[in-house]
Structures are given as structure tokens and as C-alpha cells.
Prior knowledge:
The structure holds two protein chains of two kinds.
Chain A: H1 2-19, H2 25-32, H3 38-60, H4 80-96, H5 100-108, H6 114-131
Helix pairs in contact in A: 1-5, 2-4, 5-6
Chain B: H1 9-28, H2 33-49, H3 58-66, H4 84-103, H5 114-122, H6 140-143, H7 146-166, H8 170-179, H9 183-207
Helix pairs in contact in B: 8-9
Amino acid sequence: MKYITYLSIGTLFGIIMTKSQAISWYRIYEMFRFDSFHMYGIIGSAVILGIISVALIKKYKFKSTEGTPISFTSKNMSIPRYLFGGTIFGLGWAMTGACPGPIYTLLGTGYSVILVVLFSAILGTLTYGIVRNRLPH
Amino acid sequence: MYIPCNRTKIEHTKFVNQRMERIIEWMSQPWPWYVAGPLITLTMLLLLFAGKSFGVSDTLRTTCAIGGGGKVSDFFDFDWRKQVWNLVFVLGAVIGGFIASTWLQQPEPIPLAQDTVVKLQELAISKPGANYLPEEIFSWESLFTLRGFVMLVFGGFFIGFGARYAGGCTSGHAISGLSNLQLPSLIAVIGFFIGGLIMTYLLLPVILTL
């Protein structure tokens, strides 16, 4: 039953990604060229509303539907990990025009070749797991 | 059912059908940023209230764990059953993509900035915005060309490797992390842009003309 909830939220997310054209390679290319406000508007408004919502959740100590308090885990501070990892991710994002959310969404819109991108991304994650002890974090 | 007294039942049915058609027509328009952005915040909030957190790239790690990745690295040695909800969430994203592209399909091309269109045509992308993706790159035929192979396979690899190295992707860092005012997430997002700009301005002009 709970899985129906996650499935529905995911479906909503997929529709939003498609209808806002955030799944489009062109929109990501346009964003990195600073030619249009569209993607900045989407991410910017989501973040501003997100900051307000998270602050309110913390202030009023909201609980989840499971009855547990909604908690936020702070990320460990480090620079190389986020900067190097982020830069590598950015290279891939600008190439495929898709981050993980849109990769899944694009599969549903019928681009079967995106399976190659998904498979390569899994392979990249696997490789990271194997070499992570040798990387600066 | 309420039927206004000045209408017959047939007229009323017609009226309701027209209304439905108009709603679907309205939903089929591209959604502007000020609709999409707040709805993404809503997605994050729904997951928080369901007791979970919004981070799509975690599913890649979970997939590795399910596939037996624990044998090659303890990074994949964890109880993946607790992460199945996220796989269900991304299955929903696939369904959402199907619904939106099947029943809410927009008829017009993507209204890209003119500068972007001109630049892409210079880089041998013939019909910018005609579809979600340029078919020159995102097709099975293209996979067997050097350009297509580099774009799809290397691109995907960088996404998977970089997201895990940085501990999150656009959803985990740019949306969830920044909403929680996490400095590490801001550093990651700056990294996303360093990588994205290097690719867009320095590497893509070379790769796209391979």
C-alpha cells in the first residue's frame, strides 16, 4: 500500500519533468549557455520555496505520516569530494542533458536508447564504489 | 448529479465533455517555470512527509547492491531492502514520462532561445527543439558512431561516477541540500556548473563535430 504512495509521487515527478521540458537535452544546453531563464526559474523557485518549507518544518517540528519527526541529516564538510565529484557529474550532465531523474523519465517517453545512459551510469557508480578508497574525500 | 434547469441532459454532457477537453488542452501546454519549480518543491515535501528524502541517484547505488556489488566493494554492502521505495519512486517517474508524452503531448516545438538554436545548427544539430532530444545523438544508430558512443556511454558514466563521488545529484544536492542550507551541497552545485561549462564551451564543440 505504501508503495502506491511512492509510485504516485514518482508519477507526478515524471509528469512535471516532462511538461516543464526539464528532460530536454536542449533545455540543459541552453541553461549552460545562459541563453534562457527557463531552467534557472525552475531550479531557483524550487530552492527558494524549499528553503522556506524546510525552515517551517524545523520550526514547527512537523511529523511524517509514519508519526516520526521529519529529520534532516547534515552533510559532512569537505571541499574536494563535492568539488571534484560535482565537476565530473556536471561533465556528464551537459553531455547527456539528463541528470538521474530525467534519465528515468525519458525512458517512459519512449527513448529506449537512454537505457545505454542508465547502464553506463550504473557502471560509473560501481566503478566509484571500487576506487573510492583511493580518491580524495 | 447537479444539472442546471435551463439545460437538457444531452446539452449538459456536451458541456462537461468540452470542459474536460479544455482542461486536457490546458495541461498539454508546456508548463512555465513558475508552475514546474513549486511542483518540484511539492515532490520533495511529499517524500519528506512520507518519511523519505528526495535523492534520485541513490537508486543507482541500490541497483549495484541488488546486483551483488557487495562482493567487489563494501560501499554496496548494505541492506538494500530499505531503499526499494526509491526504486518504486523512479518507476513512477518512468510512468509519469509515459503519461505526459502520450496523453499530454504538446504539438509545438520547444521554444528555445534563438542564440541556442543558431549555435546548435553550427554544431550540426539539424532541428533544435523539434523533440525533447536531438535524434542525431539519441538513437540506436548513433550509438555505433564515435560521437554517439562518447555522448551516451561516457556521459552516463560521468553522471553515475560523479553523483556518487559528490554524494548526490541535482535532486539530492541542488534541491534537497540547498533547501536545507547545506554548504557541501552549494559546493557540489558549483562543481556541477564548472563541469557543465567546461563541457558546453570547450568539449561539446569538439565532440559534436566528431
